[in-house]
Structures are given as structure tokens and as C-alpha cells.
Write the C-alpha cells for this entry.
Amino acid sequence: MTTTTTTAGGFYNFTGVDALPEGQEYFVFYLNDEFLGNTVDDTLLYRWFGQSIASYTGGSADGGSFDIGELFLVEPSDGITATLPVTFTWQARAGVTGETYAWTLFDLDTGLTVCESAPAMSTSFVLDEAFFVDNCAGILPGIDYGWFVWAVDGTDFDTANGYGDSFYVGTLSFERGNVRAYLPTVQK
């Protein structure tokens, strides 16, 4: 891993980077955390993953331009106990056009994604019974989950020019009577 610091104008340059071995890739990664020496700033995204650089023989390569301005979560209120359908809303990032957004629900204990939406040109997502049944197996009532939003520079994660996630996460649990644990069954 090679690190660099942006200039006052927001430009960056990595020096002394080796040619890329066959089957490997480079990408620019920003982490809004003290781990890499950054000063934490909650008005910026938490992370940004730049576009894949699949070929590099030395010299220079475009790692992409990106904006790390924050993505603010709006609703539902933090810590609620929800019933389906639940509408999640967020603010579009100021000054950034053409982005899509993807909603993600994750397990607070493990950090693993439980379910997520595809990127869309929308600042809201409705978690309804149909989406829940098809995509969110294993959610248990009375357990706290976290949610956040990805800002995607493109129409999907695989071909995006990059993507980053909101600094803050919301938390919620689901009511027992409203959420069914869809567990796999085994035929004997």
C-alpha cells in the first residue's frame, strides 16, 4: 500500500509505484479515519473506493476525480423499532450530479451486509414486504441493525468510477409481529 496526501487544491499524486503484476489491480482509497493519519471530519464521506486500474506499467495512470462531501441520512429516526414498509431517506450530495445511491442494511455485531438495494437515481428507498422476502433473509425481530447509503459515481458498483459511503449510520430494529425470519428448510 502506498499513501499520499492531497494538495490544498484537492489534487493527489502517488510516486514510486511499481508496475502492476498480471491479474492485480490498483485503486485509490480514501478513509476518513485516524488509522491512515487523516483528521476525522464528519462532514465528509467515511470511505471512497476509486475506479479499478487494471493495467499500469509505470509512469502515470488516472486514478479518477472524486468528491468526498458528506451524504446525510434523514429518516427514519435513529434507534426506532420499525414495521414494514419502512422508508429510508437521505439528502443528495451538494454539488454532485449524476450520482446514484444504494441503501444498505447491516448487522451491527459483525458488520456484514444483510441486504442492500441496487444503485438508483433516488434519495429514498422503501423496504417493503416483497423486497424483504426476496433479499433480506435472516433478519430477526428485536435485534438492532445499522443502515447507511452508498454514493455511486455510475449506475452500478461493477462499472462505477468510484463509490463512497455515508459517515454516519442509522440504527433500527424490527417489530416481532411484522418481521418473519425466513430460514432455509431441509427436505427429508
Q: What stands out?
A: The CA atoms of residues 19 and 165 lie 29 Å apart. DSSP finds one helix and eleven strands in the chain. The first strand starts at residue 29 and ends at 31. Confidence is low (pLDDT under 50) at residues 180-188.
